[in-house]
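Revision sheet: structure tokens.
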Amino acid sequence: MGQIKAVILTGLVLGSEERVIKEIKKFEGVKDGFMVYGEYDGVFLVEVPSQEKLNALISRIRRTEGVTRTITLVAI
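Predicted:
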């Protein structure tokens, strides 16, 4: 089975955006991350080998200080 690709949108605490994005970009499976304007503040492109790894990555991102919410879009 191939890699699972997803986009994770994050809400971030005002003023913490650069620090949080820099931190999350170091997580295993995160291919890129950047700030955006709009309803969400950070976008992360991820690629992992399994649903279990995706679940663990989402949980880790959600527990990161400065993250207020997430939405995950899984590629099909």
